């Protein structure tokens, strides 16, 4: 069984080089829990010091996010581009990723914009967010920021034939990402594929050295919002727990229901937080116990 949901369509009229989206299947791709952890440690709360009316900020999960109540979607980005109009655009990114296929759809939407797009990586552009970053005509990255590339990552269960079918189905999407990364960086496709296999994090200087970015962002353009950092890390814990439960064979709805049920355990906070589960001071302890039962 593969985790499925409705996927966005391939957007008509995209410039040459638009990435493919699933046509015959509707598959959701995830960001590994290891990346969520590194985002929480290294990039949570990093924001731009100032913004303008031609800036699109992506400081959230890619795809609709149950836990934050937000998420960056192709539909939202399309609406923002329409509001900006026929002008140059800046895209500010600090995201661990999320749904790879939603990221591809956003990449295609940005590729349709007729004017120049400058992408600025504020803290991290990992997984699906790194695909979005490649849509920029110019890419700038903080010296202490990171670009992470990897193969499309999904959760699937079944026998060896099911696994072989899933692997074969994913291969063209990984190859498409190799082509996009290679076209921007000028690096050999085989080297790109090896970096994706290894789940590679590139610091700002390495991203520039390897051709993924044109320049480093000045440090005075970045700041850490402590409130946003605390919120990012709190919601990230819930995303990681959901992913662990899905990997154990539960559906996303089952995983979410189980986590929400923990709010009713002795000692859990009684006030309803702004986002489901976020801000519960005792919830982390309950989640730790749940994780122990999942990973035995």
Outline the fold blueprint.
Elements: H1 33-42, E1 46-48, E2 55-58, H2 74-84, E3 89-95, H3 100-112, E4 117-126, H4 128-133, E5 138-142, E6 146-149, H5 160-185, H6 189-197, E7 200-203, H7 204-209, E8 215-217, E9 222-224, H8 226-247, H9 252-261, H10 283-295
Parallel strand pairs: 2-3, 3-4, 4-5, 4-6, 5-8
Antiparallel strand pairs: 1-9, 6-7
Helix pairs in contact: 1-8, 2-3, 5-6, 8-9, 8-10
What can you see in these coordinates?
There is one protein chain. The protein is an alpha/beta fold. It has 2 domains: 193 residues, 2-enoyl-CoA Hydratase, Chain A, domain 1 (Alpha-Beta Complex); 68 residues. It is built from 10 helices and 9 strands. Strand 2, helix 2 and strand 3 form a beta-alpha-beta unit. The chain is globular. The N terminus is likely disordered.
């Amino acid at each position: 069984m593969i985790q499925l949901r409705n996927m966005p369509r391939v957007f008509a009229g995209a410039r040459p080089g638009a990435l493919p989206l699933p046509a015959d299947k509707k598959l959701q791709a995830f960001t590994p829990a290891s990346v969520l952890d590194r985002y929480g440690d290294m990039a949570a709360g990093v924001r731009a010091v100032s913004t303008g009316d031609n800036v699109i900020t992506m400081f959230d999960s890619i795809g609709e996010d149950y836990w934050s109540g937000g998420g960056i979607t192709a539909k939202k980005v399309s609406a923002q581009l329409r509001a900006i109009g026929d002008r140059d655009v800046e895209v500010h990114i600090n995201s661990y990723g999320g749904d790879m296929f939603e990221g591809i759809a956003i990449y295609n939407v940005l590729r349709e914009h007729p004017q120049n797009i400058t992408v600025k990586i504020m803290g991290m552009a990992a997984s699906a967010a790194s695909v979005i970053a490649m849509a920029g005509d110019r890419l700038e990255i903080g010296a202490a920021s990171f670009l992470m590339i990897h193969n499309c990552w999904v959760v699937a269960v079944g026998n060896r034939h099911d696994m072989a079918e899933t692997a074969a189905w994913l291969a063209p999407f990984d190859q498409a990402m190799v082509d996009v990364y290679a076209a921007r960086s000028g690096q050999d496709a085989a080297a790109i594929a090896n970096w994706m296999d290894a789940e590679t994090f590139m610091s700002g200087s390495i991203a520039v050295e390897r051709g993924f970015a044109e320049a480093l962002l000045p440090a005075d353009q970045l700041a850490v919002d402590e409130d946003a950092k605390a919120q990012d890390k709190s919601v990230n814990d819930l995303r990681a727990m959901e992913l662990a439960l899905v990997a154990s064979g539960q559906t996303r709805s089952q995983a979410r229901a189980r986590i929400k049920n923990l709010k009713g355990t002795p000692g859990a906070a009684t006030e309803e937080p702004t986002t489901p589960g976020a801000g519960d001071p005792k919830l982390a302890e309950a989640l730790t116990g749940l994780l122990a039962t999942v990973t035995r």
